[in-house]
Design a protein that fits this description.
Strand 7 (58-78) and strand 8 (83-102) form a beta hairpin. By secondary structure, the protein is α+β, with helices and mostly antiparallel strands. The strands form two sheets. The protein has a five-stranded antiparallel sheet with strand order 2-1-5-6-9, with no helix packed on it. A four-stranded antiparallel sheet has the order 3-8-7-4, with no helix packed on it. The radius of gyration is 29 Å and the shape is flat. The protein has three helices and nine strands.
């Protein structure tokens, strides 16, 4: 079983007993943490998909240690100008071990229900018919109907005024 979970602003695909390096989390080494922003879970052929997250799903983890990542060197230079700048950075990370993945809710991605199209009303059909006309033809219809200010209207405004 696996899950895609959002931890500290990043998304990770995790499985039970997997070690993951994430941005620094608050908490001591040995503390248990749980993440409720589970976006997707999968177990063989069945997939549960959240919208955006699965309600009631939790991923439990244990903080094993806090550490710093590899050094990243930032070097800036402008040629022929005598400008050089060297800077370094090490990201603060936390190593966690995934202990459990619990799924209680969610909807199956394989069995999505078809949404029923809303019934068209008379005004919707009328506006669809008016979409077929050009702006010049719509302005002519507005003139015949006696509308004022039709010459400066855009197509959408003309359709709304005529329907």
């Amino acid at each position: 079983m696996y899950a895609i979970v959002e931890i500290a602003g990043q998304q990770f695909k995790v499985a039970k007993d997997q070690k993951v390096f994430v941005n620094r989390l608050s908490g001591e080494e040995g503390d248990s943490v749980s993440f409720d922003k589970v976006l997707l879970t999968g177990d063989g052929d069945s997939i549960n998909l959240g919208a955006p997250a699965i309600d009631g799903a939790l991923v439990g983890a244990k903080i094993t240690r806090h550490l710093k990542g590899d050094k990243v060197i930032v070097f800036k230079k402008k040629r022929r100008k005598g400008y050089k700048k060297k800077n370094g950075h090490r990201q603060s990370l936390t190593e966690i071990v995934i202990e459990s993945i619990e799924v209680k809710g969610g909807k199956k991605a394989a069995s999505t229900k078809k949404e029923e199209a809303p019934k068209e009303t008379k005004s919707d059909k009328k506006s669809e018919d008016l979409n077929q006309y050009t702006v010049a033809e719509l302005k002519e219809m507005a003139k015949e109907k006696g509308l004022e200010g039709y010459s400066s209207m855009k197509k959408a405004e003309l359709i709304e005024a005529l329907s």
